User: Which sequence fits this backbone?
DNA sequence: TAAAACTGATCAAACGTTTGAATGATAATT
DNA sequence: AATTATCATTCAAACGTTTGATCAGTTTTA
């Protein structure tokens, strides 16, 4: 049975036009080339504003980058809706998988910032990315613990290995897309099949 | 039963000292900061050679980066030993997992180059990284096809989703380490347990 | 002694940031 | 009601620094 969920993920809107334009234009640029791969002139030009506005509003290029990451990861850390749902543990794992797919589809840049910071961390890693990731992993660990105390899950499984396996299955699928597009059909139409597939393998793996 | 394998992975050694020093010094720098995050002066200084040697031997910074990636991914693409082994399909998947873990442990920079190019691709992506990744995925797909024709595996599974799930479980574990070190024990001593764990889940998922 | 390896100095271009002036709207003063 | 002062915002220009690359010259090697 498919769990119907409504994930409300409002987009942050700055009060100021110039400031907003900079963030909106910076997202795809930073996501594609990284912090050091984009120049302030490129950013300002893409936003259609004067380049000094970057320093004025964000204190510099790194400030703009931090603002972009803050906005992007505010979405990732929102797990309350999942946590508070009164469903069984397996369904909670499915909710996480569905939320992840939904977020990556809505925001195609999120995963790039995510993995870019994991591989080439900037100052933002410790302040923004690491806490967000730990939050997600901790939620998954708590869910697994619930499944254990319910005596639904196998008790011979390592909790961290198990939840990272689930997270890995769904995240790696999207991460690999640029390289495997010719080998694998990554069309959004297949998402439902992918989710069922992952949950199928995971369920067989963890159930008693 | 654990499959004992000997993975011979010789390290490329340049005939020239200056050239070799540059590559050796460049690996951790490029891996940590990316192509744009390191300057030629930093590279030359770390290698203990004159700055102009980068252009002399590699035609420029990008040339050195390409040389580093070529060396790194020569290891990743070496799958012949796995392919030619006369073992059943499930054991072949386990060989892949073991080889992956072994390579990431021997070369802690490999995964970083790998994911860095996936998120922020340079000119090397199409020429070096993409072919290497496709090679690995194709090998896994072939192995799955063998398991299907042996009637060992479930025939209702999507082959690509299945092999990407396996690859995701093992790769994501290492990718996430910088963020989850406080939550998850990533010690090499646990690798054997991790491999068994992943193969356990995977086996239950794919077997008839 | 010719070729290869290497050096220090130098180059133009690009970098991120800062400046001081100009703008227009709002608040305070007369 | 008219004038002045203050404010945040925007701009073009220039700042000093760093970038990657080059080149003429020197040393080393064969």
Assistant:
């Amino acid at each position: 049975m498919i769990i119907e969920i409504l994930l409300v993920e409002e987009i942050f809107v700055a009060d100021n036009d110039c400031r907003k334009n900079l963030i909106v234009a910076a997202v795809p640029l930073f996501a594609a080339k990284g912090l050091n791969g984009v120049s302030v002139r490129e950013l300002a030009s893409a936003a259609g504003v004067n380049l000094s506005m970057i320093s004025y509003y964000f204190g510099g290029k790194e400030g703009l980058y931090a603002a972009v990451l803050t906005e992007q990861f505010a979405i990732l850390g929102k797990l309350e809706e999942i946590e508070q749902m009164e469903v069984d543990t397996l369904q909670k794992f499915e909710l996480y998988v569905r939320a992840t797919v939904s977020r990556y589809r809505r925001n195609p840049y999120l995963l790039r910032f995510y993995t870019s910071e994991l591989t080439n961390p900037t100052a933002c890693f410790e302040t923004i990315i690491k806490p967000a990731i730990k939050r997600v992993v901790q939620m998954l660990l708590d869910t697994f613990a619930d499944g254990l105390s319910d005596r639904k899950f196998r008790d011979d499984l390592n909790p961290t290995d198990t939840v990272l396996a689930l997270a890995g299955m769904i995240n790696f699928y999207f991460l690999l897309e640029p390289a495997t597009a010719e080998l694998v059909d990554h069309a959004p139409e297949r998402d439902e099949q992918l989710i069922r597939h992952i949950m199928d393998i995971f369920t067989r793996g963890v159930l008693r």
Observations:
- Residues 39-41, 51-52, 54-55, 60-61 of chain B lie near DNA strand D (CB under 10 Å from a C1').
- The longest helix of chain B spans residues 124-149.
- Chain B has a mean pLDDT of 91.
